[in-house]
Amino acid sequence: MVKTPRVPSLHRAFDEMRFGADRTLNLRLHHPSREQAVRRAENWLRERQMSRAVEALVITGRGNNSPDGVSVVREAIVQLFASLRRRGVINEVIEHTPGSFVVTFARLNAVRDAPQRARNPHEPAPRDPAGLAALEPATRALLRLLAKRAIEELGVEPKPSFVEQEMLEQFAAAAAGVPEGADREARLRTALNAALHEYDDR
C-alpha cells in the first residue's frame, strides 16, 4: 500500500516562508537531553545575533510524550530565554505555538552593555592580554577600533589604558557568540564589524 505524503499545514508553510532553515532551530529532531538542548540553543541564538538576524523560530515541542506531559527541554529553554534577555542577547520572546517560540534579537551593543549583575559573579571576565596577542593583526585592529568607538560613545577620552581594557571586554563579549569551529577568527571579525556598523547606524 502506497502512503500518501503528508502535506505540510498552512501554519508550517507560513513559518517556512517567514523564517527559512537558517533562522529555525528545531530541538525536537534529535531528542536532545536538557543540557544538550540548552547548550545548542544558546550557541545557535548567539550566532544568529552576531549575524544580525532580526528574529528566529525555536521549536521545543509540547512534551506530549514526556512524563506528566511536561517537556523538560521546553522548560529549560524558557529559563535560557530569561537568562539571555538579561545578558543582552535577545530582546523579546513570544509563544508562537504551544511547542515553539519566536525570538527577536537585541542589538549587538546590548551584550556589551548588559548589567554586571546579569553576568556570572563567580566567573570573572577574561582579562588575559596574551589571549589578544595570539590574534591576527587584523582582528586586533578591529578590536582596538571598536574599543575606541565604545569609549567615545560614553563621552570619555580613549586613553591607552582604557582602550586596552575595553579591547578585552569587547573580545570577551564577541567571542561568546562565536562557537568553536572552522574559521572561528574570521567569524569573530565578522561579528566585530557588525558591532562597528551598529555605531555607524546610530
Describe this structure in words.
With 202 residues, this protein is an alpha+beta fold. The chain folds into 2 domains: 10-106, Ribosomal Protein S8, Chain: A, domain 1 (2-Layer Sandwich), CATH 3.30.1370.110; 110-200, no CATH class. It is 50% helix and 11% strand. The protein is built from 8 helices and 4 strands, in the order αβαβαββααααα. Helix 6 packs parallel to helix 8. The protein is elongated and about 60 Å long. The termini are far apart.
According to CATH, what is the class of the largest domain? Alpha Beta
Biggest sheet character:
4 strands, mixed
Radius of gyration using CA atoms only: 20 Å
Number of strands: 4
| Largest sheet: spatial strand order | 1-2-4-3
The CATH architecture category of the largest domain equals: 2-Layer Sandwich
Tally of helical runs: 8
Strand content: 5-15%
What is the CATH topology of the largest domain? Answer: Ribosomal Protein S8, Chain: A, domain 1
- Low-confidence spans: 1-7, 116-129
Question: Helices and strands, in N-to-C order?
Answer: HEHEHEEHHHHH
Q: Determine the fraction of residues in helical runs and give it as a percent range.
A: 40-55%
